[in-house]
Amino acid sequence: MNARKRRGFALVIVLWVLAGLAVIAVSVATLTRNMALNVRLLRDRLSAEQAFISTSSRIAVIASTAAPQRSSLDSERGRLFVDGRLTQVSDTEWVTLQDTRGLVNLNRPNAQRLLKLLQRCGASEAQAQSLADALADYVDADSLKRINGAETFEYRSRDLVAPRNAELLSRDELWRVFGFAEIRPRWNAAGCDNFVTVRGDSFANRNTSPYELLLADGLTEASARALVNARADGLPSLEIQTEGADPSNPFNIVGGGFAGEVLRVHHEKASVEWTLEYELELTPQRNGGPWRIHELRYPSRLADRPRPGARMPAVDFRIPERDRTNLDAASRLPFAN
């Protein structure tokens, strides 16, 4: 082999080696970048979980030692607004607390409120009555069928699992109730899962109800919007006074109730795209601890965040002596004064 051919062969080898080194370098750079990204995501997740655990503990302690008010829980450690307004914890963390008395309890619903909600969530007037009866048949303990309801025979005719004849254990169980699967797409599109619960008592609290349920109760759009805007603007609780012919409040009762013992808690942090949501049940008089957590979920973060209407009480907050009388035991009956 002459010198020229040897040089050409060496050049080919060098080019192949350089190409291989380039591929290795790109692979190493990509791997390093992915590892750095994974480390950052893990750090963000750990930071979010740490923040959520810390805030959850503060909420549970304040709520379990608080006196219920119309739209808040007041404790020596501060006030928690539970009417669905956004509460700022820090510059990068927010929480929303929703008193479930302001929602529709699927296990103990007000009939008129449930029918209005079903129609708002995609059911026709006739279909809403059938769905309401089917839900009542599902959660009651007997096997007697209501006029428009459904019991074991109707379920078997459609190859569905027979009703448990017991209260719903979660919001997801609603889709096992006869007929509800038909409106599920419209229900989800309208965000109606946010308006219902399966825990708490049968009392209602309009002071913490969302806009859609205030309309279902018969309030005018202007009245409902004014109340919701007042929460968003950070105003204290407002007493609801209906005017004129209101089918859900024929006596023009002032006030809509007091906050109950179950809260839906929604945590959000700027560094992560997911949120933490659960229902906090206050159980100071029961075995097993002063609170319980149900229906833990991780929904996606909303694209548009409303402006905060409150701030989380400081860790070292102490109520002034002049305000301690507000912590006297308050009745949890809906129309107590």
Secondary structural class: alpha+beta
Number of distinct helices: 7
Instruction: Report the mean per-residue pLDDT as an integer.
Output: 85
- Share in β-strands: 15-25%
Terminus-to-terminus distance: 107 Å
Shape: globular
Radius of gyration: 28 Å
The SSE string, one letter per element, is: HEEEEEEHHHHEHHEEEE
Give a quick account of the main beta sheet: strands, pairing sense, barrel closure. 6 strands, mixed
List unreliable stretches of 5+ residues. Answer: 241-255, 331-337
- Physical arrangement of strands within the biggest beta sheet: 10-9-8-5-4-11
Please tell me about this protein's structure.
- With 337 residues, the protein is α+β, with helices and mostly antiparallel strands.
- 35% of the residues lie in helices and 16% in strands.
- It has 7 helices and 11 strands.
- Helix 2 packs across helix 3.
- The longest helix is centred in the first third of the chain and has 62 residues.
- It is globular, with a radius of gyration of 28 Å.
- The relative contact order is 0.17.
- The C terminus is likely disordered.
